[in-house]
Amino acid sequence: MIRARWKQVSGLAPAAFLSLIAAHGAVTTEDLGGDQFRVTFTYTAPAGTKTVNLAGSFNGWSTTATPMPGPDEKGRFAVELVLPKGRHEYKFVRDGSAWEPDPDATETVPPHSNAVLRLGVTARDEARTSPMDMAHRAEHPEDFLAVVAQNSPCADRGRVRDLVAPGALPWVREQTVSFLMDDPNAEDPYIVIEGHGFRTGYVMDRLRGKEGFFALTLRRSDLPADSVYTIEFEKDGRTQHIVDPLAWTATSRNGKPVSVIAAPDLKKGRIVLIPPVSASGPAIAARELYVYLPAGYDAKRADGYPVAYMHDGQNLWDDPTEPFGHGGWQVNVMADRLINEGKVRPFIVVGIPNSPERMKEYAPGRSIFDDSDHPYLQYIVRDVKP
Asked: What is the distance in angstroms between the CA of the first residue and the CA of the last residue of the chain?
């Protein structure tokens, strides 16, 4: 079993050491002041490992830029870096090609289990910090408030999904865009908006007279192009991250599902998310599914549609940054064009994201014609298709 362990900072008495560091799973950190931190990464590798490199958001995910000296007599590799205040992600690269997640990380992000290291910031601080000016708040549109007003608080209060149809959010108008959620147990929910090189958040307003309803309206002219969003809030002592279940369309950014800030377009298909699907057979990691629904699906779903199942599901769509900053594979755009030109009948695409076990899952097993030797194929047939 691969384990990442503590490495002590030499030259410090125990009391001084404890006062200067904060635990981040496999790392120790020392606050140097001036928004700078000394970080020690330690990794215990399997027997026979020759090299380990540290790859992360701080070095462009290079597999060679940050070698970790070692191993010592216990098989440990370690490296010390000075990193700026903020949020960082990292992984270990063993023998030049094997990407290993940190099994002791206190926080990871899908789909590749990158470890998250926060230096001097919390998740909430991070959401509300931006290197550039972002959209300014605006008054909630009257038609937006009118829809919300249709629901009177009562014992069996309706949820947001009872007020608006699927795909109706965010509430996009000529000048503004509005967001809506309801959860009477949520604490200070906020909309996190991501774009090219920024991530910032806005605390939602608690709607007066509407218990548990929260809203936010921003000026569209201030929003950068290709903005996406998630909803985050505190509940039961933990930060919850959700994708708006009533958003018109979703996509993938930085390997995770997000909602797109876009008005409904009846000439285009849209992408919805299915919650994580678990495997009923041999161990396959559960994962959310991206599903492209062709234009008109919501009105004609009884007609039946052919379905294409595609792998690397988080890379399939038209997000300009996914994957690896190069842009997605435009499957939804191509499907829209072929359907609108009458070259193919409308069809559904199910995008199955990969996992850290990608190479093992996609390998053919003993025989590509025998699913008994192929757990991933069993997962598709027995769990994803139904």
From this structure: 35
